[in-house]
UniProtKB/TrEMBL annotation:
Cellular component annotations (GO), alphabetically ordered: mitochondrial intermembrane space
Domain PRELI/MSF1: from-to ranges: 1-62
Lineage: Eukaryota, Metazoa, Spiralia, Lophotrochozoa, Mollusca
Pfam families referenced in this protein's UniProt entry, alphabetically: PRELI
Protein name from the UniProt record: PRELI/MSF1 domain-containing protein
Organism: Magallana gigas
Length: 106
């Protein structure tokens, strides 16, 4: 059973339970311990598997954030470069127009 962590809603709790009842008196203790140990091992495998999947999801999410941030930075740099190039072009055009206006023909 999965449910939200009572103090931290960003976390999820998992509750697992199993009931073992053996009706053979001379084997009951042994079989119950054996079954419980097996259940605990399998429960741990399931938990480890779930944590592995969640870690992969976190890594992918983190990777996607880095890709998006990199893309945003490149877009900002491209925009700034285009703006600077346009400003430089306008400055050069203005300089040439002033130079031509101040140059007298020979």
């Amino acid at each position: 059973e999965y449910f939200p962590h009572p103090q931290d809603r960003s976390k999820t709790c998992l509750k697992q339970q199993s009931t073992v009842k053996v009706n053979v008196p001379f084997l009951s203790g042994y079989l119950e311990r054996l079954l419980i140990e097996n259940f605990e091992k399998n429960a741990m495998k399931g938990r480890n598997g779930m944590e592995w999947v969640m870690d992969r999801i976190k890594e992918e999410d983190s990777s996607n954030k880095v890709k998006q941030e990199s893309s945003d930075i490149l877009t900002q740099l491209e925009t700034k470069f285009k703006r600077e190039a346009e400003d430089l072009k306008q400055s050069m055009d203005s300089f040439f127009h002033k130079t031509q206006a101040n140059t007298s023909p020979l």
